[in-house]
Amino acid sequence: MRARRPLLAFFLGAAPVFVAMLARGPAREAPPPSPPDVAVRPEVRWIAIAGGLEPASTEVSMAQDVAALREALGAADGVIHFGAGPGSPVSVVAEASPPTLRSRLAALFAPRDRARRFVAGPAAHGPARFGPVLDALDAAAHHPGPPLLVYLAGHGDGGEAPAESLFRLWGGFALAPVDLAHVLDGAARPVRVVSSACFGGGFAEVLFTQADPLLGPAEPVRCGLFATAWDTEASGCDPDPDRGRQESWAIHFLHALRGEDRRGRPDPTIDRDGDGRVGLLEAHTVARIRAVSFDVPTTTSERWLVHAAQVLELDEAAPRAALPEEEAVVAELGAALGAPTEAAAERAWADAELALRQADEALAELERRADDAFFALRIRLLERWPTLDDPWDPRFERALAEDGPAIEAVLERTPEAAAHREARAALEAALEERDGLQVALARRRRLAEAWDALSLAGALEAHGGPAWATFEALRACERLPP
User: Fold this and answer.
1) Tell me: the pLDDT tens digits for 369-386?
2) How far is CA 107 from CA 50, 60, 110, 429, in A?
3) Are 116 and 72 in contact (CB under 8 A)?
4) Where are the domains positioned within the chain?
């Protein structure tokens, strides 16, 4: 038996709490009712649900992703639920204003990215609120027709188990795998779910009836492709409108659906089976190989392999299955990473994990120093101007008007200010380095999981029976063009 089984490891790590989480579901407020004036179009082939919780978290890349999806799939065939609805504001990076005393105090006491402007978002058919979203999904899923594609583009939260993953909706409400499964159970047509959100792999649970593995796979088949696993963040959510500077699974996937590389140039190699059409899994495979990002892409068929390995006695000595998508990942990504064998892939993943763990240990110390420096500078200011951290207090404006030069002097020329600048600079450099290490780890984990999928699929194929038939049905669903 190999020392590491990546696919099994990240699901089995949640085993002690998994059943309990499925039983009780994630704790969250009850959603508001759907407004009666939102149009529902049951005949559509695709539904996009996108946006953040509020304008500040609705980055322009989400609107661009939705526009790319609409172009790839056909505007007449789908509906978009975005943010607060048509024209909902999106956040775009803006040139930073020259620093003022007020902006420097804001950066110290209430840090956030204020170099943003807001523009009108895409044309949409409705808001990305809980009620309208579920109404649209319910109507479309239960309307007979070709397979329905559901695309989730936004922010996600993770939990202690896959079923705790959440997709955040406008206003702070959230969609959980069990919510999506309940509305899709008994659908009149197959459904494919695609998510570019953080922790989106938790939505692979929708392959099961009621998102419960104990109830078996749903009928008709439900499959999905996800930017990243249930336990990892995704790249994207970028306020920079320049697509050339963005990098994520989503941008590769959406371009690949149109037979293009991430720069928009035609790329005939994306159509790997040569049938003249790009399937979802072909686009997903391209993104797995090429995206230099935090993403660890996964699918419902991989989730099924893990489930089968948990409940069946599989022969680990069975020959690997012939899965062209996984073979492409191990060949092309393995070559790019200098890890052409399974053993080399596992060593590379272990080395990347160690490097990130060591960086996190160093980062914890730098964060402590930055906190200490902040509190020292904070108290130096507040002991003379007690309301300087509260711009809503009328004495704040009086302090700026009467003592502005003295406040500037504390921020510029005191030992506390110098220590704070030094600590912040060291922390920001370490965070940038950590991002690079996290990308390196994600790419190596993708490679190790592709090797593992080949082995698990081979063992399941040797076992045969309904479990193998379910895997084949999921793969067939994932391979279909959108």
Assistant:
1) 999 999 999 999 999 999
2) 30, 23, 6, 18
3) no
4) 7-102+116-338+464-479
